[in-house]
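Quick one, probably user error.
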């Protein structure tokens, strides 16, 4: 009786091991089409950006998980090269050193005009945040300077500002990051506009309401081949308002898909993480 039980147990262990092995092989087989699907989705996002730049309606294939609205964001890290500031691309997850200078360019591949707003908050180690401040547009923003259309990247801060960049500095020792809230709206918002060096404080409740009403689940793709690349001549001309980007020009560094209705207002949070001193070594 005891011998039979041992044999049965041994066979059970062997059967379980075989079953686990089959399951692991099945999991690997299933993961391969997922990678192909993600790559296909990324190509669709790029296609929608390029078609929007060509002023043609981007086709949205059926049975694809790309329903929503796209927004492209490039974080530019400014470095001094021969006493001239040079802008190079950084990822959305970059850990910046305190004192570094950055700019953003934001592109919305939508038909028609939309209005762009950028709100800044400091986020601390205890997960609290400062009051929100509207940092774009400002009183120095030219008329229609915050109107986003396909192929027109909006640079924040603007080139004409006294300081056309942000300098990342901690207001408190426990500050972890600056958190930028990007709002794209088909209609202008009724908000006060301040000076570039003296932005207007907004009501917390109002910003929370916008985030609740206009936010959605966010997916994103990073253009890894673009990391570290410098601002191209086409992007410099677009920054000055001399031209729009076309299909062959570089795409945004990070593309976000926000699950909102087509043409509806949308909200996106972009963190600018600041490294601690221990992270810098």
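Nope, works fine. Designed sequence:
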């Amino acid at each position: 009786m005891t011998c039979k039980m041992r044999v049965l147990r041994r066979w059970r262990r062997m059967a379980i091991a075989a079953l686990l092995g089959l399951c692991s092989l099945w999991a690997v087989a299933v993961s391969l089409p997922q990678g192909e699907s993600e790559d296909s989705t990324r190509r669709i996002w790029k296609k929608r950006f390029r078609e929007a730049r060509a002023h043609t309606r981007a086709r949205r294939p059926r049975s694809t998980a790309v329903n929503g609205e796209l927004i492209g964001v490039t974080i530019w890290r400014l470095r001094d090269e021969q006493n001239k500031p040079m802008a190079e691309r950084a990822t959305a997850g970059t850990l910046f050193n305190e004192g570094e200078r950055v700019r953003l360019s934001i592109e919305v591949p939508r038909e028609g005009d939309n209005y762009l707003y950028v709100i800044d908050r400091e986020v601390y180690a205890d997960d609290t945040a400062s009051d929100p401040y509207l940092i774009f547009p400002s009183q120095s923003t030219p008329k229609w300077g915050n109107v986003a259309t396909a192929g027109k990247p909006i640079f924040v801060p603007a080139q004409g500002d006294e300081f056309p960049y942000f300098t990342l500095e901690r207001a408190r020792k426990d500050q972890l990051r600056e958190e930028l809230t990007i709002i794209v709206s088909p209609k202008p918002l009724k908000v006060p506009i301040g000076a570039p060096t003296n932005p207007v404080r907004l009501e917390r409740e109002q910003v929370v309401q916008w985030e609740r009403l206009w936010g959605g689940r966010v997916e994103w793709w990073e253009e890894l081949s673009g990391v570290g690349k410098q601002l191209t001549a086409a992007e410099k001309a677009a920054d000055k308002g001399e031209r729009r980007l076309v299909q062959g020009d570089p795409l945004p560094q990070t593309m976000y898909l926000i699950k909102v209705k087509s043409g509806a207002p949308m909200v996106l949070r972009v963190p600018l993480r600041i490294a601690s001193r221990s992270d810098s070594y």
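The first helix runs from residue 2 to 53.
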